[in-house]
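dude i think i finally got it to work??
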Amino acid sequence: MGVDQFSVLTPGEGRRSLRIQSRNAYNAGLFVAKIKHAPSGCGVWPAFWMYGEDAEHGWPTWGEFDIVEGVHDFAHARTTLHTSQSCHQG
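look at this
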């Protein structure tokens, strides 16, 4: 899997988004991501994130944890926990 380095976009044309999702669900574990290159620049938002859901609680009911999140042209990646008052982490 890699970054598209060949497509030439016309002005105003957006680049396609991609989400990779596991078929399995995990309640605990050690998760390792080796990211050699992430896109950067205005309008991009690369992230490695996890969220909780089940049949009764769809995303984002139980929140979302952005383990690595880059925004536009930030010099450093961020870590963010998105929740609401009804979110139960535990």
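The CA atoms of residues 2 and 36 lie 10 Å apart.
im so relieved honestly
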